Amino acid sequence: MAHMQDHYAHWLRDAHAMEEQAISMLSAQAKRIENYPLLEARIEQHLTETRGQEQALRTLLDKLPSGRSSALKDATGRLAAMLQGMTGALTQDEVVKGAMTSYAFEHFEIATYRVLIAAADELAETEAKAVFEQILQEETAMAAWLQDNLDDTTRLFLMRDERDLQAKR
Ligand SMILES: [Fe+2]
Fold first, then answer.
1. Which residues have CB atoms below 5 A from the ion given as ligand 1?
2. pLDDT bucket at 65, cuts 50 / 70 / 90
């Protein structure tokens, strides 16, 4: 049981760091997008959801005996996100790169919550399990939206670029 608790605490801290990274990434993307209003609106919506997820995970973390020893890791995650945002800004196709990155990132989040749901279930942490299931729904919806819109975003980017309109953001 002690080992199980350790793994659970570790995965929960990682998930929290991941959501902090997501907040940085989504804010950077939303701020830069200019010509893709539907994408921008969906990112803003998920940013609000993600802020709620970060808070919900922080509440669960604060209840752990080990507390929040994740400060260093969280800071590292934020730095990584900042660097990624800057790199994205330098590309000529940042909106497409951003949509691809978000699509991959959402699936990483989905995997994270599936693992946490299984662990919480083994530990009979019913309250935490319900939190993870709620978050999983939001991540799944965002992933599905991105999947449905990757085609449109790509075509709109190509069309604007062909016409020498600002396309990259
Ligand atoms: Fe998330």
1. 22, 50, 53, 109
2. confident
Contact 110, 140 (CB under 8 A): yes
4 CA distance to ligand 1 centroid (A)? Answer: 24
Least confident of 20-24, 63-67, 70-74, 144-148: 70-74
Domain 2-162 top-level CATH class = mainly alpha
Domain ranges of the chain: 2-162
Residue 84 confidence (pLDDT): 65
Dist. CA 161 → ligand 1 center (Å): 31
Distance 77 CA to ligand 1 centre (A): 14
Q: Which residues contact 79 (CB under 8 A, 6 or more apart)?
A: none
